[in-house]
Structure formats: structure tokens, C-alpha cells
Amino acid sequence: MQKTIFEITKMDCPSEENLIRMKLDGISSIKNLDFDIPNRKLTIFHNGQIEQIEKSIHELNLSSQRLSTEQTEINQFEENINQKKLLWTVLIINFIFFLIEMTTGLISKSMGLVADSLDMLADSFVYGISLFAVGATLVRKKRIAKLAGYFQISLAIIGFIEVLRRFFGAENIPDFTTMIVVSFFALIANGICLYLLQKSKSKDEVHIKASMIFTSNDVVINLGVITAGILVNWLNSNKPDLIIGIIVFVIVIQGALRILKLGK
Description:
CATH topology of the largest domain: Alpha-lytic protease prodomain-like
Largest sheet: 4 strands, antiparallel
Strand order of the largest sheet: 2-3-1-4
Distance between the termini: 32 Å
Structural class: alpha+beta
Oligomer: single chain
CATH architecture of the largest domain: Up-down Bundle
CATH class of the largest domain: Mainly Alpha
Strand content: 5-15%
Order of helices and strands: EHEEHEHHHHHH
Number of strands: 4
Number of domains: 2
Helix content: 55-70%
């Protein structure tokens, strides 16, 4: 593998970085891009000739100049490794809480917890899918974002049908204490996930943005389930639990639509 360093005089903000990424997307010989915006430097790890890459950069008219090209033994890149560690962390947290919320939701007969558990499961799949996007081209990342969006919509529709079935059926009042306690701990878990994603250096990439949208929705949903638990106790009715279930799936669909826009 080779390492080529470019000096790009007019690269002074993330806008130029995104422009360069889009321009170089699709060049299969490129394995990694390392941007040093303060020093106006771009390091490209690649296989084969540099001519096509250099021509593409020059076409952007950003006052670019190739400084050096040399052989390198590097084949693992810190940015990709950090992304994978981050995504594995939030995936494990979400999957654990899927199991907890699904179990406690079924035991306590809370549709709000069941709905939130399905959302956690969807998030786990999204993070898993995002792992495949690490180091991939922009086109592939957009395709993965679309897949995540459609998957989320499918789960939301299934859950919405279940809410309607329970709404018109004879269901017992859920255990409000379980709803509140479990949702509180899920809120803490999602807050940690959102914090980790927001401080990531890769937070502007499509698949990471998609993950942040899902997690932001989860925080709102957890607060909603806690509120529903309080209302279940106050009104002695299962309707607040079912209503929050409907709201959860509406929020899920809205988040999925936002993700599909990122994939365009």
C-alpha cells in the first residue's frame, strides 16, 4: 500500500473535506482518507497509481499540490477502529435493553415497554448494519442508511397493528411501577449512547448520523413511557400505555423518513 500526502491550500473547513470525499468516492484504489484541516494536508492511503486520484483533486480547483508518495505497511486505520468500537458499544447497550424491556413489557403487560423494546431491537440492527459501513464509500453508506430506514418503518407498522389490537381488545392494566423504573434506566442508557455518538469525530458521516437520529428518538420515547406509567397509575387505565405505544411508532416512522433523506 502507498501513502500520498497532498497540500490543499483552500481546504479550511469541513465543507471542503466533504467536497473532496464526494469527489474521490468510487475510486476503488483508495483505502483511507486522513484530513488535517488546520495544516491544509490530506493523506491518502491507496493501492496502485496516484494519477487518477491526483487528477480528481486538481479538478476541484482548491490549489492542491502533491507533496510525497511512499510505501507504507499500515493497513488498519485509527478512524475506522474507533468507529467500530463506538458502534459495538452502543449496539451491545441497545440489545441488552431490548431483552430487558421486552421481558418486563410482556410480564407487566405494557405495550409502551414492548414498543420501546422493538425500537431498541431496530437500533441494534442499525448499529450492526452501520458496522459494515465503516470505511466504505459514500454510495455504500447511503445505501446502508436507506436499509436502516426501511427496516425501522417495517417494525413500526407491525407494532402499530399490535397496539390497535390491544386498544380494541380486553387487556389488563399494565404495572406502572415496572414501566417507570425500566424506562428510567433505558433513558440513562440511551443518554450514554447519544453522548458517545455526538463526541465521535465521525458524527458527520451518513451512517453515524442515522445512528444519532435513532438514539435521539429513544430519549424522547423513554420520557414518554415514564409519563404514560404515571398516567396509568393516576387514571387506573391501560389507555395511556396504548397511546404512548402509538406515539412511539409515529416517532419511529418520522425518524426513519429522516434517515431515508440522508440516503438520497
